[in-house]
Amino acid sequence: MKDIILMGIQGSGKGTQAKFLREHFGEKMKYFEMGGILRALQATDNVLGKYISYYTKNGLLINPAIPAGLWRVFMETLQEGEWILGDGMLRTLEQTIQIVQQMRERDRSFVVVCLEIPDEEVYKRLTHRAKLDGNNARKDDTDAQAIKNRIEAFHRETEPALEWLEGQGVLVRVNGMQTEEEIFGEILRIVEK
Questions:
Q1: 126, 147 contact by CB (below 8 A)
Q2: d(Cα 176, Cα 120) in Å, to the nearest integer?
Q3: Kind and range of the H or E run holding 161
Q4: Confidence check: pLDDT of 36 > 70
Q5: Residue 133 contacts residue 102 (beta carbons within 8 Å)
Q6: Cα→Cα distances 24→15, 29, 85, 96, Å
Q7: In the chain, fewer beta carbons within 10 Å around the N or the C end?
């Protein structure tokens, strides 16, 4: 079994697939969701919370050293025989290189699964998600400019990371426009090879 790192633009279905994978593999799979961790940090009334809040509210990417440092702490918590399910922490080339180096330092066998959807679908899914969540909606899902900024940041910052991962032989691209069940089946085939 390989560690799994889910990647893709916001709204691509990473959270849904992470839920399926956690239910399927159970306690042996340790989940790290960067977005949830950053949202918890931004809710704190300190300089880090304010920094993260400003960047996420405006659809911008935070300094890559922050996610890489959080990932390093997470890696220290792992016990023998536990697998990793990472969600949403590979956003820039610098951050991706740092996290992949940490995986390789620990001799982790892993695959990065990128869920791909068109930009128009991102708008559709994020605005739909905001409507479903109502008053609890993420602020960056309700602002059209923030969504536009997130899409532009993905193309500018994350696509070079995807190309680098492809060159490393660890990236598998999955069509995120399939049904949730079809995507899940494809991910299982990838990680159980």
A1: yes
A2: 13
A3: helix 159-168
A4: yes
A5: no
A6: 14, 9, 12, 27
A7: C
Give percent of the chain above pLDDT 70. Answer: 94
Please check whether residue 164 is in contact with residue 96, taking contact to mean a CB–CB distance below 8 angstroms: yes
DSSP for 110-153, written as a single string? EEEEEEE--HHHHHHHHHHHHHHHGGG--HHHH-HHHHHHHHHH
| Contact of 176 with 8, CB cutoff 8 Å | yes
- Judge whether 100 and 17 are in contact, CB under 8 Å: no
Tell me the average pLDDT across 40-60: 88
| Residue 138, both tokens | 């993420």
Contacts with 71 (C-beta within 8 Å, 6 or more apart), sequence order: 32, 34, 86, 89, 98, 99, 102
Residue type at position 171: L
Radius of gyration over alpha carbons of the chain, in Å?
Answer: 16
CATH number of 3-191: 3.40.50.300
d(CA 68, CA 57): 21
pLDDT for 91 equals: 87
3-class DSSP state for residue 87? strand
Angle (CA) 63-65-66 rounded to 5° is 75
pLDDT for the residue 62: 86
Contacts of 51 (CB under 8 A, 6+ apart): 62
Q: Which residue has the tokens 């930009």?
A: 119
